[in-house]
Amino acid sequence: MRRLFWLGVGLAVGVVVVRKATRTAQSYTPAGIASTMSQSAGGLVESLRSFVEDVRVGMAEREQEIHYAFAQGEAFDDQFADLREDPRIGDREIFPEEHQR
Asked: Is the pLDDT of residue 57 over 90?
């Protein structure tokens, strides 16, 4: 009975090892590599879509805030007004010459 048990355990381990080796070998074939690349590209595209959607939502929220402030007759909160009005701080200090076109 003991030998039959160990024979069963050996067969089970052998099946698991062979299946794992077959999957690993298949992943290195041209079809397996193409499948992996396709899945990676799909994940990248989905991440990019999610990022673009988040940006659009943020833009829409900010646009609503601006419209609301305008409708209420309030001044728009411009974070960069100080920089634009200061003659000492021009585009040259914010953007060095090598980055200007």
From this structure: yes
